[in-house]
Amino acid sequence: MKKWTLLVVFGLALFLIFPIATASAEEPISVAANSYQNEFPSQIKFKLEASSDQEITRVSLYYRMRGSAVLTYAYPKFDKGNSVSVEYVWNTQRKYIPPGVELRYYWQIENAAGTKIRTAPVSFVIEDTRFKWQNITEDNISLFWYGGDQAFGRRLVGIAQQALDKLGQDIGITVQEPVKLFIYATQRDFLGALEPKAQEWTGGRSFSSQAIIALMVEPTGEGIPWAARAIPHELSHVVTYQAIKNPYGDIPHWLDEGLAMHAEGEAELGYTRVLDRAIRQNRLISLKSLASNFPADPEQATLSYAQSQSVVEYILDQYGRDKMSELLAVFREGSTYDDALLAVFGIDVAGLDAEWRASVGAAPPPQSKTGPAPAQTRSQPAQSPQLCTGVGIGLGLGATLAAAAKVLPLVLG
Predict the structure, then answer these.
(1) Phi-psi region of 208 (alpha: psi -120 to 50; beta: other; left: phi over 0)
(2) How far apart are CA 12 and CA 97, in angstroms?
C-alpha cells in the first residue's frame, strides 16, 4: 500500500510568498491530464499527467473545503522522469467528509531546474452518486432527496422554512449561508453516507461549518412527524453556529442543545418525566457540568437534554428574545461563559443555575458538587476549522437511550 505524507497548513500565506507560474503551453512543464474521480463514500482519486524538458522531481496536491481556513497538501509517490503519471487517493473512510461539500484543489509541479508551475484551481461538489437525487431550492434551503414524490420534498422544505422562521422569531438569529439538507430514505442508506464508526441508531447529523445536514426520513406519512422535530433540531445547530462562529471558542453545550430542543417545539413527555423525577429526587446536574459533553449514561444524558431545554425556556421567558440574541452576540465576539452571562443578565453560570432551579421548584445547587467551570480560553479554536459537526439528541448514546427515555426512535447528531 502506498504511503502518503500529509501536512496541514493553516491559511494560504505560505503560498502567497513566492509567485509560481500557472501551467500553460509555453511553460517548460506541461500538463496533459488533470482529473478527479468521486467514489463517495469510500474515496476520491486525483490523477495528473505532466511532462517537462527536465526531470520532474516533485508533485504536490493542495486541497481544501469551501469555507475552511485549512489547506491540506500531500506528496504522492511517483516515478520521477520527464513524463510522469501521478495518482493520489483520499481515503474518505479514514478521513471522513460528508456529501455536499465543495472541494477546491490544484497541483504544484517542480522539475530538476527548479521551475515550478501550479495548475488552475478546480472546484467540485462531493456527491453521493449511489442515488438519483431530486432537488428543491427555496431561499436559503436546498433539499436533496430520492425517496418520495415532489409533494414529500415540498413538505420537508416547508418544515425547514418554518423552523428558520421560528429561530428568527424566538431567538433572533437568521441563516447567514444557504443550507443543504440530504434526506435518506432508509437507515442503511443513511449510515452508508456517514463515517464507518457511526452508530447504527444515528438518525441525523449536522455539519455546521459546511452548512450541511444529513437525515434519515422515511418517505411515508410516518416519517413526517420525525422530520418535523429532526429538521428544526439540526437547523438550529447550523444557524446557531453561523450566528456565533468565531476563533475563540464554543457556546456552552447546554445552550446549543437547549436551543436545538426549543426549535423542535414543546418538550416530549419522556424528557419532562425524567426532569420532573430529577427535581423531586434532587438529582439535577449542575449547569457548569452541562457546559461540556453530556454524560454517556442513558438516563443522565436524557436529563441533560431536558435540563438544557428547560434552562433555555427559562431564559426566554424571564429575560426575553432580545437578551438571548444579545447573549449570542457576546459569544460571537469571544467571551468566557461566566463573563457572557454577567454582561447580559448580571449573573454568572452558578447564578443562572440557582435562578432556574428556584423557578422549577428544585432545591438549590449543592455548592460542594458544582465543581470548577470547564477551562475556557480565548486563543484557541474550540472546534476543528475543517469540519464542525453538530451534537444533537444523544450523539453516541445509542438505542439504549431511545429505549430508556422512550423519546425518539433515532438519535440526532
Answers:
(1) alpha
(2) 21
**C-alpha to C-alpha distance for 231 and 215, rounded to whole angstroms:** 8
> Would residue 375 count as lying in a domain?
no
Nearest alpha-carbon partner for 47 in 29, 58, 64, 59: 59
d(CA 243, CA 327): 11
Three cell numbers, residue 128: 453521493
Sign of the four-CA dihedral 360, 363, 369, 371: positive
Q: Is the dihedral of CA 296, 302, 307, 309 positive or negative?
A: positive
Phi, psi (rounded to 5 degrees) for 159: -60, -45
Q: Is residue 379 part of a domain?
A: no
Give the dihedral sign, CA 346/352/358/364: negative
Nearest-angstrom CA–CA distance, 110 and 80: 11
Q: Are residues 238 and 340 in the same domain?
A: yes
| pLDDT tens, position by position, 21-59 | 445 445 789 999 999 999 999 999 999 999 999 999 999
Q: String of b and e for 161-191 (b: at least 16 CB within 10 Å)?
A: bebbebbeebbbbebeeebbbbbbbeeebbb
Phi, psi of 80 (to 5 degrees): -65, 150
* 198 closest CA partner among 188, 213, 212: 188
Question: Residue 56 belongs to what domain range?
Answer: 5-125
Cα–Cα nearest to 212, from 305, 127, 104, 106? 127
Residue that is written with C-alpha cell 453530556 in the block: 294
Q: Where does a domain end: 76, 102, 125? A: 125
Question: pTM of the full predicted structure?
Answer: 0.81
Structural domains in the chain (count): 2
pLDDT, tens only, 2-23 = 333 333 333 333 333 333 444 5
CA-nearest of 249, 243, 238 to 334 is 249
